[in-house]
């Protein structure tokens, strides 16, 4: 494992203002979202908005430093504008060059960050340079699909074949991790509208944690972690989450789900029952 590692995820809403500008709509805000969804269905048969119209409301990350210490964090609209969220996230790459890990990040998260950073007139060479500034990044950068500076687990585990793509929730459950913890539907718009910021950040951080757990299992598969080091990573994660009250539910569901597969059934010692 090349440290430091940054596992990340974003949550978004449809940018109604930009959508109205793009399509030339002059409608009350209450009608805009339905109109944009209808137009999108006409274009593609799906409701999913164009990537540039995804307004970022939260970016969460798990930072693993050179000593293996963990730090879970979120930048959300509770305290910051979208531009400020992006500035804070992008500044990480100015200070460090972490191994970036995501689930579907190369097709969604990174392109959305690119479009929204451009929308706000931000500069992010540390993330988007492909060798024009730093010649070393010509051979190892965050955009190239086959480099390991950014590891999109959904892509690499599918052997770079879209027919093999799997959902994060499904893979987490299959491997004995919590997944979405019974969440049905996409509640991010409701969380933002009702200012349930802790639910928003916990949801986003939950995806980050599931991605981290799948990542270290992938490293075990590839021989980049041995069985003992993998066990230590699992135990360190459990110990860290025991100090994070907002993730008590995640930990409890993980405890239950771990019993469903033989490999994970020993992650939680009997003394913790």
From TrEMBL:
The keyword RNA-binding does not apply. Transmembrane segments: none annotated. It comes from the Bacteria. One of its GO terms (molecular function) is exonuclease activity. Residues 47-254 form the Predicted 3'-5' exonuclease PolB-like domain. Pfam families: DNA_pol_B_exo2 (PF10108). SUPFAM superfamilies: Ribonuclease H-like. Keywords: Exonuclease, Hydrolase, Nuclease. The keyword Hydrolase applies. This is 3'-5' exonuclease. The lineage of its organism: Bacteria, Pseudomonadati, Pseudomonadota, Gammaproteobacteria, Moraxellales.
């Amino acid at each position: 494992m090349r440290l430091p590692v940054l596992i990340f995820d974003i949550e978004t809403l449809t940018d109604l203002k930009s959508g109205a500008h793009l399509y030339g709509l002059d409608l009350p805000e209450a009608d805009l979202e339905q109109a944009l969804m209808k137009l999108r269905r006409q274009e593609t048969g799906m409701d999913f908005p164009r990537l540039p119209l995804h307004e970022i409301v939260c970016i969460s990350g798990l930072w693993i430093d050179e000593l293996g210490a963990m730090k879970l964090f979120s930048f959300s609209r509770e305290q910051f504008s979208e531009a400020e969220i992006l500035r804070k996230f992008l500044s990480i790459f100015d200070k460090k060059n972490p191994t970036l890990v995501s689930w579907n990040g190369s097709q969604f998260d990174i392109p959305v960050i690119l479009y929204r950073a451009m929308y706000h007139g931000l500069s992010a060479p540390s993330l988007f340079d492909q060798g024009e500034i730093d010649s070393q990044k010509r051979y190892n950068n965050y955009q190239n699909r086959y480099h390991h500076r950014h590891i999109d687990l959904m892509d690499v585990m599918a052997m770079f074949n879209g027919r093999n793509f799997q959902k994060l929730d499904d893979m987490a459950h299959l491997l004995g991790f919590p997944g979405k913890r019974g969440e049905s539907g996409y509640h991010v718009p409701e969380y933002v509208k009702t200012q349930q910021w802790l639910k928003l950040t916990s949801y986003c951080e939950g995806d980050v944690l599931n991605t981290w757990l799948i990542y270290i299992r992938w490293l075990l598969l590839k021989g980049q972690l041995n069985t003992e080091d993998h066990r230590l990573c699992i135990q360190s994660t459990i110990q860290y989450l025991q100090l994070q009250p907002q993730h008590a539910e995640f930990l409890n569901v993980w405890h239950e789900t771990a019993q469903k597969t033989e490999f994970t059934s020993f992650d939680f010692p009997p003394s913790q029952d």
